[in-house]
Protein: Acyl-CoA dehydrogenase family protein
Amino acid sequence: MAATDAVRTDDPTRRAPAPLAADPAVLRAFLDGPHAAVRDEVRDALVEHAALLDERLDLPRAELRRRVRDLVVEIGSSGRAAHGFPREYGGGGDIGASIASFETLAYGDLSVLVKSGVQFGLFGGAVLQLGTRRHHERYLPDVLTGRLLGCFAMTETGHGSNVQALGTTATYDPDTDELVIRTPDDASRKDYIGNAAEDGELAVVFAQLEVGGEGHGVHAVLVPIRRDGEVLPGVRVEDCGAKLGLEGVDNGRLWFDDVRVPRENLLDRFATIDPDGTYRSSIENPNRRFFTMLGTLVQGRVSVGGGAVAASKVAQEIAVRYALRRRQFEAGAGSEETLLLDYGMHQRRLLPLLARTYALSCAQQEVARRLHEVFSHDTPEADDRARRALESRAAGTKALTTWHASEAIQECREACGGAGYLAANRFAALKADTDVFTTFEGDNHVLLQLVAKGLLTDYSSDFEDLDQFGMVRFVTGLAVDTLVERTAAHQLLERIRDVLPGGRDSWDTEAGILDPDYQLAMLRFREEHQIAGVARRLKAGVGAGTPAGEVFSAVQDHVIAAARSHVERLVLEAFVERVRAEPPSPSRDVLAALCDLHALATIEADRGWFLEHGRLSAPRSKAITREVSALLRRLRPVALELVEAFGIPSEVLGARDLVGP
Amino acid sequence: MAATDAVRTDDPTRRAPAPLAADPAVLRAFLDGPHAAVRDEVRDALVEHAALLDERLDLPRAELRRRVRDLVVEIGSSGRAAHGFPREYGGGGDIGASIASFETLAYGDLSVLVKSGVQFGLFGGAVLQLGTRRHHERYLPDVLTGRLLGCFAMTETGHGSNVQALGTTATYDPDTDELVIRTPDDASRKDYIGNAAEDGELAVVFAQLEVGGEGHGVHAVLVPIRRDGEVLPGVRVEDCGAKLGLEGVDNGRLWFDDVRVPRENLLDRFATIDPDGTYRSSIENPNRRFFTMLGTLVQGRVSVGGGAVAASKVAQEIAVRYALRRRQFEAGAGSEETLLLDYGMHQRRLLPLLARTYALSCAQQEVARRLHEVFSHDTPEADDRARRALESRAAGTKALTTWHASEAIQECREACGGAGYLAANRFAALKADTDVFTTFEGDNHVLLQLVAKGLLTDYSSDFEDLDQFGMVRFVTGLAVDTLVERTAAHQLLERIRDVLPGGRDSWDTEAGILDPDYQLAMLRFREEHQIAGVARRLKAGVGAGTPAGEVFSAVQDHVIAAARSHVERLVLEAFVERVRAEPPSPSRDVLAALCDLHALATIEADRGWFLEHGRLSAPRSKAITREVSALLRRLRPVALELVEAFGIPSEVLGARDLVGP
Structure:
């Protein structure tokens, strides 16, 4: 074979496409989306506090925590944390703006970001979403101005992803009309809780509610844990100590030794205890109630995803600017050394990451838009299907964005060599601080299983509701019929083929590689094929009487692959749609090329699958690789504009050693 | 397609292979290799100093550095650093033992490892390899007992990988019979130099040697930089400050302002200045001289590779033990929750990494064995080809092991969820400290280019010699004929086919998937095909008159892929050979299964390429994926023994939260 292959043509002028020219302002407007003004406000604030980025390098942990706390309080008092809260409590009533603000904050120190997220997003969000008017009136004004710092005490040492199995109990005592909060064992201590070690005064504690001897599942209760800096009686606090990153956040553990709070401290939007001690909920089914409660907290995942994309942008701008300054090894005797970004491999390392970053930015904006829509026209029971689809999209996008951040930051750090290892050049903090994003607000693999479950049930099943994980239980309870209908997925493929150039049979060999409809059809085909395959395998396993646990274990990687393929399709779709909506301009051509690069690099990365399933021929697969290389060369001249468009103030970008003065 | 695919069979008893049973002692002997006793000594020492692993979490940088320095000095005074040095200076004369010792040290704190490496490996190694008897006698006894701490001052801010272009000068002054060391500009300051910021007293400085107005290229000179803790006149030192990791190592920058040292301070094994001021070298060609000097320092790369594998073992043992304790989500109503490692996806995440770790351990032992052989029967000019092949193998193995370490540690950290993020559980340090391994002792991409160049020239070219990078120069100087011969690579493929079951045409469709000869032939085919392809593309580009820089840039990713494929083949070969040499036993069956898993996972990861190049059919490709899944289920019951075999003392493993008491 080796001797007969045609020599590959590497002539960059093969198709002689017009050189690209980009206007960073147009690209920036594209990325900033509808909340550019909010983002600019945050940019200004970041510049004001940029000194922390350098100073933190030599601050002891205790002092760093203080600095970070002060900044979070100042974010609150400036009103910048209030965008997403109702106007009547001093908020802005604009959820989209609050996501945009949070995302932009991620250009700066990530301890500040995460501590803000804990305070205003998780803690404030829980009070808002799970509480009722009396909680809102009493707490929200203080929460969102940073006067009352709090915790979101959900995770326990023994149970992270499986929230339904938490061990902490909240038992109603009719004699005193109080709830008694108890940590029955060390596995049930609250763990990794932000704001718990030092600053939090009030905690939203998730616990198994028992009323009149009957368990009603996990509910949220407000429990004071500190007053004037002193831990309250019955509460035990332990500092989680040194962490891999986010050292400015005071994570801690909490134990409750029969701590009593008034009945009114139950956050009772979805279930309440009447004055006569009767438990009452508008949602009959306990699972459904639980997942409805959790579902209201979806903004946390959307925020983490957005923060991850933003943090990856900081790394990429540094690496691209470095690659446009740093020369190494002369091209010929006596000539000047070559810029790193003029090396083909360096382009391969950095530019597809940039393309993916643009794609994920579009996907993230789409999630934020839907979040805004669903939560702005609010009754939680209203459109269950839309809510579940949103939760699924948020979960999947969070998984892909956070993995992307880890990967991109690592690649950029390596692309900056030894200098990338110095803490002053930002990568140390970027790597360490974002590392936990892949596991917090839901472990990414668990989240993708949630996505898969939604796909398998078309968001309409009610037998187990949207469990965070529970795929094994799901398989156990599997009604074979539920999946049969879904297996009709192949009908969708027929439709795809019909609309594509070349008709039903040859769409994939005749369509232009650079046709977004072809690219999307490829990703759709993969997604549908994989979901149908998972459905068949689950069905076959359950039908054969194999224990559910075994069936699921054997199919699990397929389940996760299917979910990932689904989200990849959503991401490309979001990018394609945004580019199509853009008015014609040279910058739009840049975006189109970037979108092609993202689409083809995504197909290329999984070309083994497409070849196995007859959707790529060997020559076409090789053609895609050549096209990716051609796109890299085309985009190389606009690399600087692509990162300038992030709009990261240079004071915040830092890394002077790498990016220059 | 979706509806007509056969349902995949996931029945684990499909081939009913015998259950595996492993004896950790046998596996440990396999991994420890010929220097088990040396490794055990280091294990004992690590237990003695295990407290540092916890204490370091809260130590300020200055104090951590002191602790680390004291430990390095104690390693020296205990004689444990002397294995590789000649007996006449207090050493053990056993290079293999010194590698084994260094590797095992990597189970502990990695600042101690790296600072030891700087002191005994780089600094001591340079004095030994580049110096002559007078340097050995005067310095080695103090160096290898840790009484004289020193630096290896090669890298400059402006030049990392391209050492030949260093800016520091060493000018011979015949009037005073001295060498004058000068840093001409800030780009030429020595940067990231271990031991420079605080502890080093003597530095091996790499500088452009000028004698009588003539430049002779880079040479190494001994330059005192401190006495009794005080920086000497003419030397300027700056602390590199906070780093991503390895905070116990005092990296610094050095400037020399016409610092004068006696002529005898030139490390003059390969070139000397006579008393009359004449430059004289046994190696005429300056390039060849330079690369011969550098080549003697190959042990550094071998050490880093070994350290990376060992560090990844710590992460994997923690993650596997955690996955065998942690239960999450019950399999059915009321049943116990499922162990993480019983989830198929969790097996997919961890077990192929383990298999690869065993493979890389074998590859690493093979490099160490060859290093020992070449350097124990020593005349540097003797067998150039063997030396170059060793350098290439060391470079390639270092690239693969260090990337593997980054990947494995990251995956293991994620597989331990939130608890993995706490510094007490080891991952923080493992991640941060090993991160630089991918770029130090040579950036991995640059190293793979060195490998590719060796392959293209069959280690026999002398026109540019073994440059560390310089592929562009290489292409510029390309004699088309040089490559033609190499393009005969396909003849090798013919030979491979001849020896394989099924004969020339069908070997790849009829051979058993679990036949190591088949697996190796697949990797050999890929390697040869890619090297031949690179040769043809370079030839075509140069032949067409395209500027060398452009030709190289376009082919660079292909070059790196070819080099990687070569090293992958060496790795599998080393594993297969070691397993074949093992006497029959149940543990050998475990190793054989692990070797199959590694081989098939490697092929699976690049199945796109094999499908594109007609070496896999779609059904066979899918069969490989099924076989990988079957191997995961087979190996699951011996997972604990596979990590016990690393022989990491539990005090050193730490991470009690994760692995239990």
